[in-house]
Amino acid sequence: MSSEREVLTYEMFGAASRELAQEVADSGFVPDMILSIARGGLALGMGLGYALGVKNLSVINVEFYTGVDQRLDVPIMLPPTPARVDLSGLKVLIADDVADTGRTLELVHEFCEGHVAEARTVVIYEKPQSVIKPDYAGRRTEQWIDFPWSVLPPVVPGALAH
């Protein structure tokens, strides 16, 4: 892995989330719900919700990364997960911070499949090795990304950042 990193500031994040919302709107997709993948997709989901006028926001928690470029063998969903009946027939926009391997997005997309009218994916960053091509991606990079919410260590002693 290169020591160079992609750096995203809060200001850049604000502009990227607004640009992504405009891209979704311009595509004609009108989501009934934004399903944010916690933790990285929470801020994007909120920003998209406001920009697209979508109040139906939900969260799904998936654990995959355990550190910088360290991950579990497969992503796993952690409880509580949304009830599929609550997704039934909806147009869902799945939001995450990055499609690195793409396996987290793939897992959540498969979770929705067959239960929703349509599911599309949106990320701030897409990496070339992602197994899923997001429908909407703000930027593309091969580097590790320093997100403004995860670049500093936790303020609580002993807490894990990743």
From TrEMBL:
SUPFAM superfamilies: PRTase-like (SSF53271). The keyword Cell division does not apply. It comes from the Bacteria. Residues 12-151 form the Phosphoribosyltransferase domain. Keywords: Glycosyltransferase, Transferase. It comes from Nocardioides glacieisoli. This is Phosphoribosyltransferase. Transmembrane segments: none annotated. It holds the Pfam family Pribosyltran. The keyword Glycosyltransferase applies. One of its GO terms (molecular function) is glycosyltransferase activity.
